[in-house]
Amino acid sequence: MWWKKAHINRRDWIIDHFHELDISHEEMAILLMIDLLNQQQEIINPQKLSQKLKLSEKKCDSLLHTLMSKKMVEIQTNNHEITFSIDGIFALSSPYDHLNHDLLNAFEKEFGRPLSANEMMTLNNLKKNYNEKLIIYGLREAIINQKLSMNYIERIVKSNQ
User: For the whole model, what pTM was predicted?
Assistant: First the structure.
């Protein structure tokens, strides 16, 4: 699950992809707040969301219901505790659908680290628009020239199309 990697900022991703998600501003605020409260390991309930977001409890409940029907929020119970998960939003709208895992592994191996979110987006855009062999050629050229950066690889790929 790409959204659980340490280099992924989930809240930034939600804000950046807001226009693609088919959600309202209030629904986005709830998703962001749930993610923040989960990160802080705080107990989440509609009353707390209502208080933090300055929305009525009825409005909060309605927004949660809508997000659950869109499969973006899941509420679970475990040992008499309620947990909120927003993993559904990421599972429904993966930004890396076109990204071949072998290609990603090749880049991460050569870079010697996991790719950043921006690097993964650049690689995904290259994969959408160019042949994989050309992308690997760009990676190899960058290695040979000791200029291992996504910008350099992108320029090589675009100049050799």
Answer: 0.60
